[in-house]
Amino acid sequence: MDQINGSVVTEFVLLGLAQSLGMQFFLFLFFSLFYVGIILGNLFIVFTVIFDSHLHFPMYILLANLSLIDLGLSSTTVPRMISDVFSDCKIISFHKCMIQMFFIHVMGGAEMVLLIAMAYDRYTAICKPLHYLTIMNPKVCMLLVVVAWTIGVIHAVSQFLFVINLPFCGPNNMGSFYCDFPRVMKLACMDTYRLEFVVTANSGFISVGTFFFLIVSYIFILVTVRKRSSNDLSKAFFTLSAHIMVVVLFFVPCMFLYVWPFPTKSLDNFFSIVDFVVTPILNPVIYTLRNRDMKAAMRRLIRQVSCNNFC
């Protein structure tokens, strides 16, 4: 790969998140506990949806895919963050940096489309309940999942092709604890202003547009329901509030990281940690604690596993 782009840089230096030993221990425990929670929480949702026939509906199939994406997005960065906490020399090879960037944007692009699909699912269920099973049939549901993953790959490749052929001859200090397209492009030995604009448009403007589209769609659903009855409005708001929280948690950090014109390292690190550590563990909590069907299915799965082990 180095020969392909004529690069003399074979590795990048990552930024440490803490200098003091006490803060390093805190971050190590924080990242480790949260990552275990991310793995267990998201896999539990996936297995519950797979093995419980009561959840073989579009809403829960989309939710299981969201959990897989959250698990994948977190796994691209958090294990590296944990291993680098106590390391004095935080080095990542050129190849691993490229791979990390690619998969971050595959997962991010897929999640963006999947959240739109989940909003469409809720619109159909709330505003057109009699036609829900006809509109959101299994074929449509699987098509939405395939489209989400496909667009995620296209989103990542469209930026990856620009970056992979850039010349890197130094410096190689990333200024962040992970690799991402805007930071890597700034280290190239050429003027990358136009390419930076492409990346900003691809990741930033699309994030902003999608965020406002989703918020407007949720408002439209609530206005439509309000015309029917106040009782339906309260139920719809309770259902949509979970989706709105997930959308805000995912898109606000993305908009700051890719669109905010006055970035600072401390805020960049904060929003990156929110995206990679906090959001992937909150999504399963939000969807399970606020959904009676999911809680009931999880209790059934736990009883079944316990009975198989002890009965």
TrEMBL record:
The family database entries (InterPro entries) matched by this protein are listed as: GPCR_Rhodpsn, GPCR_Rhodpsn_7TM, Olfact_rcpt, Olfactory_Receptors
Keyword Disulfide bond attached: yes
Location of the G-protein coupled receptors family 1 profile domain: 41-287
What keywords are assigned to this protein?
Cell membrane, Disulfide bond, G-protein coupled receptor, Membrane, Olfaction, Receptor, Sensory transduction, Transducer, Transmembrane, Transmembrane helix
**Gene Ontology CC annotations of this record:** plasma membrane
- Asked whether the UniProt record includes Transmembrane among its keywords, one would answer yes
Q: How does it sit in the membrane?
A: Multi-pass membrane protein
Q: Which residues cross the membrane?
A: 25-50, 57-78, 98-120, 140-164, 204-225, 237-258, 270-289
Q: Which GO terms describe its molecular function?
A: G protein-coupled receptor activity; olfactory receptor activity
Note one Pfam family from the annotation: 7tm_4
Localization recorded for this chain is: Cell membrane; Membrane
**Belongs to which family?**
Belongs to the G-protein coupled receptor 1 family.
Function, as annotated:
Putative odorant or sperm cell receptor.
Please report the name of this protein according to its UniProt entry: Olfactory receptor
